[in-house]
Amino acid sequence: MATQAEPLSEDQSRFLISDLCHMLDSYLEPDQVREVYRAYLFGAEAHEGQIRVSGEPYIYHPIAAARILAELRLDHKSIIAAILHDVIEDTPTLKEQIASDFGSDVAELVDGVSKLTQIEFESSAEAQAENFRKMILAMVRDIRVILVKLADRLHNMRTLSVMRPDKRRRIARETLDIYAPIANRLGINALRVELEELGFAALYPLRYQVLQKAVLAARGHRKEVLNKIETAIKRRMQQEALEGRILSREKHLYSLYKKIRDKTMSFKETYDVYAFRVVVDKVDTCYRALGIMHNLYKPVPGRFKDYIAIPKANGYQSLHTILFGPHGIPIEVQIRTEEMDRIAESGVAAHWVYKTNEQNLDQMHAGAREWLRELLEMQKHAGNSLEFLENVKLDLFPDAVYVFTPTGAIMKLPHGSTVVDFAYAVHTDIGNTCIAARVDRVEAPLRTTLRNGQTVEIITAAGARPSPAWLGFVVSAKARSNIRHHQKSLRREDAIDLGRRMLDRALGVFGSSAQVIADERLQALLKAYHLENEDDLLVEIGMGRRTAVLVARSLLPADDGTAVLGGEGTAPALVIRGSEGMVTRFSKCCRPIPGDPVVGVITRGRGMMIHTQNCRNIADGKYSAENCLDVQWEPGISEEFPVDVTVEVADRRGVLANVAKVIGDADSNIENVGIEERDGLTNSLRFRITVRNRQHLASVMRRVRNIPAVIRITRTRS
């Protein structure tokens, strides 16, 4: 964008449209290159007079972004979109004008990259999330949108140093959290590596410099060892009549940094690994080369990975092995074909670069399409843009675990996935109704973390529902978004039920009921409130966003608005069952239980909170009278409710165990216990126990009071 730049060197600044067209001449048709030049003239005129922070004409940035895509050999529409990617956002140019001059495909690509500047957001985080959501949805329609955005972001990262330090850090963090992982997920290694290196240098400049100096200092000794190993590999391959390229590789600084940070390894341990890539002609030769490597140097047990048979989620294919080299130094070797090597660098961009129908390219495209389909499903279930962005970040973890279904199908899951993640990966309905699982034919809890090669069987039940507790251990974005979506559906059902009861109660105040309300009055009220149906109105009431009495008054004819109140002029108390669900909650300050006189407090957007009538928050007038409702317990409630009790005891051996046993014998469960030493002679035991009602609590307290070591037992309220 127009604000992310640094002064370019003379050589860099002279890369103009003529240089870009010269690059494009090598792979595009002449008429396509002429179209790109026409787009340059259009963009230069639109950005006329605009200057970047570095002081250079703004048009340098779009040309540089287009050059990045030209290096990936993308099609001419992508190049044009890169040149025009900021004209909608930063100039008066309209999308319709671009569509008219360059076609609807280019207009959609440019619009997909453009930010939502015409909408005001409550926070910068919300603006970032909503702009990201817009871009992802455009990417689902045409994946070239993200390629243009990655090129835009890469050039901005290359020219970031003139920005304020706080802005540099924000942009670098966003690059490392979102854009580099997206490039990795799409298999575009060339962009991913540079984005990570630039992001690391901008976010942690001191760490970057220290690591860079350490690498430069250690590089001299490594060169001799690298040459020795490379010569040995070449000689052995020649003896076996195997042709191929052998390349020594040096780990990138950000990769070194992550390994040092995440695995708590020293620099010497991390850097003393020598990496090589062997590139051969075909898949069969890959496995022959692997045998040669294992004969030349001993392999490290358990450190071989076959990404050819089971490619990574981004389509990456290669054989990875670690060997004991000369003097026991570790050697990493990657073995792949020329085609795999090209695709590893270009990823989905290879669709435009290499016109091929080979199976591995098809698999990569299928994986990308599946990921885009999952993104679309996630955004449908996300409550807002911030939640969607969080889910996408979760989904961008590169590591994967491979497990099997009972029929032998391979499932790819994020590293650390659990049985529930697996269930949702199979199908959303399987995840929603899973109740148990067998891992390698042995029953396992739903929170079990899966390992490579395990076979997982899910057991479902028709009436089962997702548990909110699952959000504490699932790691996949699909599982998390579906569980949250289901919880929101339940919350809506609970709100409808509570809202209906509150409205019936309010109508009863005016001697009316929902059954006699005229449909035309209901429809008029829905229109006035901008709601679609009656359920939406009930949700508004149940969630406390609208007052039931005011809604009831609006539903009645004008001459009934001041009708005589039924009975003694008071509304009947709202009956609560203790199982209303997510929109009726029980206060933790006073922990009401059946038998306590209670009052309901309506909180906007959160439903109803139940307090005891003598709760300090009620007595102190914390809540306004219009938000308080008379409520009463339904007779015969079978639910159990938590309550706090404090037991003062003499300091004797075994007294805690004795009290806990008596509480258990009284058919009460202990949820929590704490001990506070008083004066050396007595202790205070604080229990949170579950009871059915006041009578049950009295019975428990009576039994505990009869223990000889117990001095006093009281019900406590915070």
What report would you give on this structure?
With 718 residues, the chain is of the alpha+beta class. The chain folds into 5 domains: 194 residues, Hypothetical protein af1432, CATH 1.10.3210; 146 residues, Beta Polymerase, domain 2 (2-Layer Sandwich); 77 residues, Beta-grasp domain (Ubiquitin-like (UB roll), Roll), CATH 3.10.20; 142 residues, no CATH class; 76 residues, 2-Layer Sandwich (Alpha-Beta Plaits). The strands form 5 sheets. Strands 1, 2, 3, 4, 5 and 6 form a 6-stranded mixed β-sheet that branches. The protein has a 5-stranded mixed β-sheet with strand order 12-16-14-15-13, covered by helices on one side. Strands 18-19-17-20 form a 4-stranded antiparallel β-sheet, covered by helices on one side. A hairpin with a 4-residue loop joins β18 and β19. The longest helix is centred in the N-terminal third of the chain and has 35 residues. The N terminus is likely disordered.
Helix percentage? 40-55%
Rounded average pLDDT: 80
Overall morphology: globular
Looking at the structure, the CATH topology of the largest domain is: Hypothetical protein af1432
- CATH architectural name of the largest domain: Orthogonal Bundle
Give the CA-CA distance, first to last residue.
54 Å
Quaternary structure type: single chain
What would CATH call the homologous superfamily of the largest domain?
A: Hypothetical protein af1432
